[in-house]
Amino acid sequence: MKIGVVCYPTYGGSGVVATELGKGLARRGHDVHFITSAMPVRLNSFQNNVYYHEVGNADYPLFQHSPYDTALTSKLVNVVKYENLDILHVHYAIPHATVAYLAKKILLSQGRYIPTITTLHGTDITLVGKEPAFKPVVEFAVNKSDGVTAVSESLKNDTLNEFNITEGKDIRVIYNFLDLARFRKANKDHFKKAIAPNGEKILIHTSNFRKVKRVDDVILAFKRIYEKVPSKLLLVGDGPQRANAERLCREIGLCDEIRFLGKQEAVEELLAISDLFIMPSESESFGLAALEAMACEVPVISSNIGGLPEVNIHGETGFLSNVGEVDEMAANAIRLLGNDTMMQTFKANALRQAERFDIENILPEYEGYYNEVMEKSLYEFRKV
Ligand code: GMT
Question: Of 229, 245, 284, 335, which residue is 20 to 30 A from 17 by alpha carbon distance?
């Protein structure tokens, strides 16, 4: 197949999933064309069957903001035509589902048919997408996609609850995935010694430091854990809440125990030395970062929101609590860190659960879905 992929190129779950999916499909012999505003972060080395088309910055003194949607639509029209694509797969509904629909209509007016698939990732539905400023457009564009996938059952249900989805329209759940060859426990003892020289436990949180991640809860839970268990906290990533989080560390006097590491490429090396992963998010359609931790045999203390219970199994791979229940999260962490037998069982369970989400199992699901959508939409197109 010749597949066009549209995604956000920056750090963030949807871009990572889109890029790894595209690279995986290319390994299986498909031609994959990334059409993005900049080189996706995970597309950092040459790979056979992978192509990259940059969407130029359409600037003009009259524009207050560069009209990215228009530039992307034009690019899609050209790439579909000249690279002879079979299908367009866009990740994150805003604005990509709308742009794909417009490109499809333009191509149709030229006698060229292209089926489109939208993958919903989370905040495009649960947060931004349902705001009145976006909702009518998101709802329309999702309904007009030939295929729609959601990264968890929870996100599918949220979409059906929040939006008026055309009757009979199927939203297919295809779970997020990871590369088990990359995310696995490796011996990094020298590194562990540098971070925790006295054998302290290491807790870790990785995110884009947006409000929805509740980084303050990570720090407040850590404070309670630290009072009972000698430990260190690694905070990986960056974003709007970082300055607040730094201030909180100063206020509670734990600056020496909490390290802000910023954006890190080799997260798996940090996970390899960690004992527990903390994800207290207010909203989380899947929680890819938690899954990556579990593949490295790190149990997870998380909130029970969104798709997290589909990833982190309460009492088996970690513990779940209501959003904001910092005391309970800390108590569960202390219990687990203090019980070696339970910890070993949870580590093994976490790995076993992560293996279910191996990219090699998920790639055929996408291929099957592409074929299904291409067949069905071509049939409908011919009827018209
Ligand atoms: O909100 C983020 O963390 C980024 C966002 C994205 O779209 O880039 O992540 C969402 O998609 C990820 C990949 O599908 C999921 O693993 C995250 O759970 C989801 N984030 C939220 O729902 C808050």
Answer: 245
Strand 318-321 and strand 116-120: the pairing is unpaired
Q: 189-355 — its CATH code?
A: 3.40.50.2000
- pLDDT per position as a tens digit, 183-229: 999 888 888 999 999 999 999 999 999 999 999 999 999 999 999 99
Q: Which residues does residue 303 pair with via DSSP β-bridges, in sequence order?
A: 321
CA of 140 to the centre of ligand 1 (A): 22
Supply the residue whose CA is at minimum distance from atom 7 of ligand 1. 14
159 lines ligand 1 (CB under 6 A): no
How far is Cα 97 from Cα 92, in angstroms, rounded to an integer?
Answer: 8
Q: What is the pLDDT of residues 309-357, one digit of tens each?
A: 999 999 999 999 999 999 999 999 999 999 999 999 999 999 999 999 9
* CA nearest ligand 1 atom 21, residue: 284
Look up the CATH architecture of domain 2-177+359-383: 3-Layer(aba) Sandwich (3.40)
Distances (CA, A) of 307 to 54, 111, 196, 332, 365: 33, 41, 32, 20, 19
Domains 2-177+359-383 and 189-355 share a fold: yes
Q: Is the CB of 299 under 6 A from ligand 1?
A: no
Mean pLDDT of 156-173: 95
* CB-ligand 1 contact for 285 (6 Å cutoff): yes
Domain ranges (residues) in the chain:
2-177+359-383, 189-355
How confident is the model over 36-72, as pLDDT tens digits? Answer: 999 998 898 899 999 999 998 878 899 999 999 999 9
Regarding the beta carbon of 353 and ligand 1, being less than 6 Å apart is answered: no
**How remote is the CA of residue 160 from the centroid of ligand 1, in Å?**
18
